[in-house]
UniProtKB/TrEMBL annotation:
<dbReference type="InterPro" id="IPR019812">
    <property type="entry name" value="Hydgase_assmbl_chp_CS"/>
</dbReference>
<dbReference type="GO" id="GO:0051604">
    <property type="term" value="P:protein maturation"/>
</dbReference>
<dbReference type="InterPro" id="IPR001109">
    <property type="entry name" value="Hydrogenase_HupF/HypC"/>
</dbReference>
<protein>
    <submittedName>
        <fullName>Hydrogenase assembly chaperone</fullName>
    </submittedName>
</protein>
<dbReference type="Pfam" id="PF01455">
    <property type="entry name" value="HupF_HypC"/>
</dbReference>
<dbReference type="GO" id="GO:0005506">
    <property type="term" value="F:iron ion binding"/>
</dbReference>
<dbReference type="GO" id="GO:1902670">
    <property type="term" value="F:carbon dioxide binding"/>
</dbReference>
<comment type="similarity">
    <text>Belongs to the HupF/HypC family.</text>
</comment>
Length: 74
């Protein structure tokens, strides 16, 4: 099973994107998706594999924040 956190594309250099995952930035290959700066993507093994609309991405990020907060309370 793969758990994916959406990341926001903040920079594009050819087929490489800089994606922000809640403050952590990583280089990601963009060969498999058609995206622009500001888009949200799901990444697997260094490749953006799916573009998400912003509403769904933000909802998913809110759920992750709640899960992480619950985990910290234990």
């Amino acid at each position: 099973m793969c758990l994916a956190v959406p990341g926001k594309i903040i920079e594009i250099k050819g087929s490489i994107g800089i994606v922000d995952f809640n403050g952590i930035q990583r280089e990601v290959r963009l060969d498999l998706v058609d995206v622009k700066i500001g888009d949200y993507v799901i990444v697997h093994t260094g490749f953006a594999i799916e573009k998400m609309d912003e509403k769904d991405a933000l909802e998913s990020l809110d759920i992750w924040k709640e899960l992480l907060k619950t985990e910290e309370d234990f």
